[in-house]
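DM from R.C. (forwarded with permission)

"hey, sorry to bug you on a friday — could you get me a structure for this? deadline for the figure draft is monday and I only need the backbone to look sensible"
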Amino acid sequence: MNHGAQKHLHPYHKPLPAQFQTTEQGRTDAEQYYKTESAMSPSKLAITDVLPLHNSTVKIPRLGFGIYQSPTTVCMQSCLTALKASYRHIDSAQIYRNESEMGEATRQSGIPRKEVFLTTKIMTVGGSPEATYKKCLDSVKKIDGEDGYVDLFLIHSPSGGASAVKEMWQALEKLEEEGRAKSIGTSNFGVGHIEEMKPWARVWPPQVNQIELHPWNQQRTIVDYCNKHNIVIEAYSPLVRNLKAHNQTLLEMSKRHGKTTGQVLIRYSLQKGWVPLPKSDTPSRIESNADVFGFELSEDDMETLNALDQGAKGAIVQAVKN
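My reply, with the result:
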């Protein structure tokens, strides 16, 4: 794969609405990348929508289902509930200890494997390049069997340092080359972390960067950078773990639209151009969180939510270091 930036990160807004605008540079970059004949308005977003990943034929569903801290005793049923509710994208990780349950739920659902987008992540190296590769391959086998694949494999965090990042990324590049990972990316990476990979990475830039995103932590520097380099942005903790459910601004907006606060937050994330990963083990909430395509937040709504940004102080997990 070459290192050149590609056009059309997520082609569904034309022209770029005000809610996408952050810095002047980000707006200029985004306008260039989002120009396309197939663009659609926010009101036309659908649960079946996908985004193309750069330098790839892979397309990632716009809405994902997160299974962080979903116990193995309930995870499989939660995944089945999500798949029944039309989610086609599930996000796990080695440290979640529920990769097998995600894979088994996919098989039990009866939905063809190629129609479900499965993600996992590696947090730490295995002790040697070979052991790190085997650690990744073991995840693939847990999820999709001896000859299976995952749709997206991420480095969970850059916290292990530059040498660990290089070892993990080269293991993922090998999986990608072998077809065992259809796409590869990063999580919790700031601008500097991604730039440090450029001199030695075969696959650069990462196809995805998954970071904490919601109105109180909008991470505009890394978001603008990802938009400029055609990196799809996944938003974890888009519901702020329900910590803002009683926020007056959010309550008033949800009442006005006749939606839950969670639905407003997920819709916000979608209209920002991100791929939200709402998490729940409550069946009714799993279903409700997918019911976000029958209404639209206005530009005023988006600006109101944008104004809630607290920078890094608004993070409940972590803001990236740029």
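R.C.: lifesaver. The longest strand covers residues 117-122.
me: no worries. The two ends are 25 Å apart (CA to CA).
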